[in-house]
Every structure is written in structure tokens, then in C-alpha cells.
UniProtKB/TrEMBL annotation:
SUPFAM superfamilies named in the record: Phosphoenolpyruvate/pyruvate domain
InterPro entries assigned to the protein according to its UniProt record, in alphabetical order: ICL/PEPM (IPR039556), PPH (IPR012649), Pyrv/PenolPyrv_kinase-like_dom (IPR015813), Pyrv_kinase-like_dom_sf (IPR040442)
Family: Belongs to the isocitrate lyase/PEP mutase superfamily. PEP mutase family.
Name this polypeptide is given: Phosphonopyruvate hydrolase complex with Phosphonopyruvate and Mg
Molecular-function GO terms, alphabetical: hydrolase activity
Source organism, top-level taxon: Eukaryota
Keywords, alphabetical: Hydrolase
Entries under PANTHER family matching the protein: PHOSPHOENOLPYRUVATE CARBOXYLASE, PHOSPHOENOLPYRUVATE PHOSPHOMUTASE
Organism in which the protein naturally occurs: Exophiala viscosa
Record carries keyword Hydrolase: yes
Pfam family, one: PEP_mutase
């Protein structure tokens, strides 16, 4: 699918209000992105800053090089056709950094970006005792405007007002000002263990653009319930870190079993066969190239 078509498809899906929000699942490399795309039922890939940082074993705190983030996102786009939503954190600096960064993501075949209103460098939203400091609404409006002026992708503005403990009124105020600056959707985040805070925000939201939520802390809320309880105001749900967590737990189990059993025979029935890996690598396509062109 062409880049413009992906942008338009994602925009239409977020605004459709069909009774079920669009679902994006996090990925951290081309292999995980391809697995998401091969699983029927997902609408987009979340190029997660958390997952990518974790895959390099560094904190999700603006530590990882922006160039690594960009090139890994580009590589995800090259192996599958779902729209990619890139997690740009704070935009790697101020509005000038945003203006220079955003076109590079559009060139990498990204359909949407998410910018958050924290200070740079950021800290992970769910980290206990993290530094949850927000920039002024005026500064963040400048970032949104710079992004909109630099690309045709969707620009999703993420407010961390609830994460920072500033309350619903401030979260709504910030969301409204971000829409005024051109945001195509508002991502509202919470670290509460129940969905009450998010549901209250969604029900009170007076804006015309769709909302985006990331129910990591309150997984008991199903996708159907999200649509019903928020009057279809939520256009997108992001499963923010499940691929990397699944990969870590699976590898830990396998490695522990190998040590415990002092051999690899016992894990063979529990892990993917080599043939599955060949398929994910596109081995058949390479063999066809060999057949056509190698002499």
C-alpha cells in the first residue's frame, strides 16, 4: 500500500466510530512488526519507544539515539503493509527539532506520529517515581504546528496531564488547545490500575477529534467495552508493550529449561520450527530470485 493510502486509511479508521476502535499493537523490530501484520484483526503498528528502548536494554528516557529509532521504524515499514504510528516521545527537542525530524519519518513510510507534552529528556510514564514534568501548552502547540507544517501524516498529541497528577480539568484544557494547534487526535494516558480515570476523561471530552488510549495499566477493559463506555469517542487503542513482554517471558522460559534439562531436546516442541523463521525471513522470495538470476 502506498504511503498516502496508508495515511488516508488510518485517518478514516480513527474517525469511523464504527462501534469498535482501531487497534494498534507495539513492535520493536521488523520481525515483530511482520508478526503483528500477519495476525488478522490489527489495524496498525505502534513503533513503540518503550519496546525499542527495551530491545536495546536501555531505559525509556530519551537515551536511545533518534537515528536508531528512525531506521528501525523504516525497517518495520519495509517488511509489511500495515500503517505505522511512530512514538516520537517529545520530538527529540523543541519545535525546531520536530520540524527537522518529522519529514524523515514520512519519508520512512510512517502514517502517523505521536508527540507528548513532557519536557526533554522524558521519563517513562509508568515508571514508579519517574520525572513527569510537562512543558507549557504554548510550547507544545508550537511543536504540533511545526509537525503539521512539515508533513501530511496524522499528528497525534499526547497529554501526560493525568500521569503528572494534574487532574482531568487540566488534561481536557490541554487537549483542547492541542486540537486548536492542529492535532488530528488526542492521546490520553493514565497509570491508574482501574479504567475510571480514563473513562471519566473520555465521557467529559468535548472535542471533535478522536481520542487514543493505551490501556496498559487497566487491561480488564475490553475493546468492545471501550467503545460502549466512551460513546465511541475513542478511535484508537494502542497495545503498548505486549510484544516485547511476550518475547522476554518466552525467552526466559526457554533458556531456563535448557539449563535445567542440560540440553535442547526438551524445548524443541515449545519453540517455533526453523521453517517458520525461514518463512518470516522471506526465504521463498530469495529462492525465486536465485532461480531467475543466478547463473
Amino acid at each position: 500500500m502506498a504511503a498516502r493510502a496508508k495515511i488516508n486509511a488510518l485517518r478514516a479508521r480513527l474517525s469511523a466510530r464504527t462501534g469498535k476502535p482501531a487497534i494498534a499493537v507495539a513492535a520493536h523490530n521488523p520481525l515483530s512488526a511482520k508478526l503483528v501484520a500477519q495476525t488478522y484483526g490489527f489495524d496498525a503498528i505502534w513503533a513503540s519507544g518503550f519496546e525499542l528502548s527495551a530491545s536495546y536494554a536501555v531505559p525509556d528516557a530519551s537515551v536511545l539515539s533518534p537515528n536508531i529509532h528512525l531506521e528501525m521504524t523504516r525497517a518495520m515499514a519495509e517488511v509489511q503493509d500495515l500503517p505505522i504510528i511512530a512514538d516520537l516521545d517529545t520530538g527529540f527537542g523543541n519545535a525546531i527539532n520536530v520540524a527537522y525530524t518529522v519529514p524523515r519519518y514520512e519519508a520512512a513510510d510512517v502514517a502517523a506520529i505521536v508527540l507528548e507534552d513532557k519536557t526533554f529528556p522524558k521519563d517513562s510514564s509508568l515508571r514508579p517515581g519517574g520525572r513527569q514534568l510537562l512543558v507549557s501548552t504554548e510550547e507544545f502547540q508550537g511543536k504540533i504546528a511545526a509537525a503539521k507544517a512539515s508533513c501530511s501524516m496524522l499528528v497525534i498529541a499526547r497529554t501526560e496531564a493525568l500521569i503528572a497528577g494534574l487532574g482531568q480539568e487540566e488534561a481536557i484544557r490541554r487537549g483542547i488547545t492541542y486540537v486548536e494547534a492542529g492535532a488530528d487526535a488526542i492521546l490520553i494516558h493514565s497509570k491508574q490500575k482501574t479504567p475510571d480515570e480514563i473513562l471519566s476523561f473520555c465521557q467529559a471530552w468535548p472535542g471533535t477529534v478522536p481520542l487514543v488510549i493505551v490501556p496498559t495499566s487497566y487491561p480488564q477493559l475490553s475493546f468492545d467495552e471501550i467503545a460502549k463506555l466512551t460513546d465511541n469517542k475513542v478511535g484508537l487503542v494502542i497495545c503498548g508493550n505486549h510484544a516485547i513482554r511476550a518475547a522476554v517471558s518466552a525467552m526466559q522460559r526457554t533458556l531456563a529449561q535448557i539449563v535445567e534439562e542440560n540440553g535442547i531436546a526438551g524445548v524443541e516442541g515449545e519453540i517455533a520450527p526453523v521453517s517458520d523463521i525461514f518463512e518470516l525471513q522471506g526465504d521463498a522470495a530469495m529462492r525465486e530470485l536465485e532461480r531467475k538470476f543466478l547463473r
